[in-house]
């Protein structure tokens, strides 16, 4: 039986102090990366993602994990006052992992506002939970 590596890209935000950044969390070919289109904050093999937790007080909107030893807080629900990820960042994230062709025709979630991010954010968390179990 052949299993294919999961391929997933989601609009997300790194949160925590001065590091708040909108971008895309992408996984393919056994790797995971986060980019805002200008900076790739991490690009690592999936086995280097450790200490994954889904805090109950985030109500299913994100996770905390160590990636290659560095702690990151990732939310899929747009934080108040934060900009939406730049759609061109998705292309950068896919090219970082070399899987842009696998996403032909995939669009990103548009410029949603306020509460409109909650349902898509919780759905994204559910998908990522399958890739990154706690």
Can you describe what's shown?
Helices cover 18% and strands 33% of the residues. It is an alpha+beta fold and 134 residues long. Strands 4-3-2-1-7-6-5 form a seven-stranded antiparallel β-sheet, sandwiched between helices. It starts with 7 loop residues before the first strand and ends with a helix. Residues 101-112 have low confidence and may be disordered.
In short:
The chain is α+β, with helices and mostly antiparallel strands and 134 residues long. The chain is built from 2 helices and 7 strands, in the order E-E-E-E-E-E-E-H-H. It has helices at residues 87-96, 118-131, and strands at residues 8-15, 21-28, 31-35, 40-45, 49-53, 62-67, 70-75.
Query: Roughly what percent helix?
Result: 10-25%
Counting DSSP H or I runs of 4 or more residues, the number of helices is 2
Structure summary, number of beta strands: 7
Question: Major sheet: size, sense and barrel closure?
Answer: 7 strands, antiparallel
Which stretches are low in confidence, meaning pLDDT under 50 for 5 or more residues running?
A: 101-112
Backbone shape: globular
What would the average pLDDT be, to the nearest integer?
79
Class derived from helix and strand content: alpha+beta
Distance between the termini: 26 Å
**What proportion of the residues form beta strands (DSSP E)?**
25-35%
Helix and strand pattern: EEEEEEEHH
**Radius of gyration based on Cα positions:** 14 Å
Strand order of the largest sheet: 4-3-2-1-7-6-5
């Amino acid at each position: 039986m052949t299993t294919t590596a999961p391929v997933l890209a989601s609009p997300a935000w790194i949160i925590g102090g001065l590091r708040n950044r909108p971008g895309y969390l992408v996984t393919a070919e056994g790797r995971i990366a986060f980019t805002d289109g200008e900076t790739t904050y991490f690009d690592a093999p999936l086995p280097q993602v450790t200490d994954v937790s889904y805090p109950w007080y985030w109500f299913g909107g994100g996770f905390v994990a160590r990636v290659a030893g560095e702690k990151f807080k990732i939310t899929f629900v747009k934080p108040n006052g934060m900009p939406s990820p730049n759609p061109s960042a998705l292309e950068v994230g896919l090219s970082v992992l070399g899987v842009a062709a696998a996403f032909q025709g995939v669009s990103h979630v548009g410029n949603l506002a306020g509460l409109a991010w909650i349902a898509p954010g919780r759905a994204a968390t559910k998908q990522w939970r399958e890739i990154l179990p706690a």
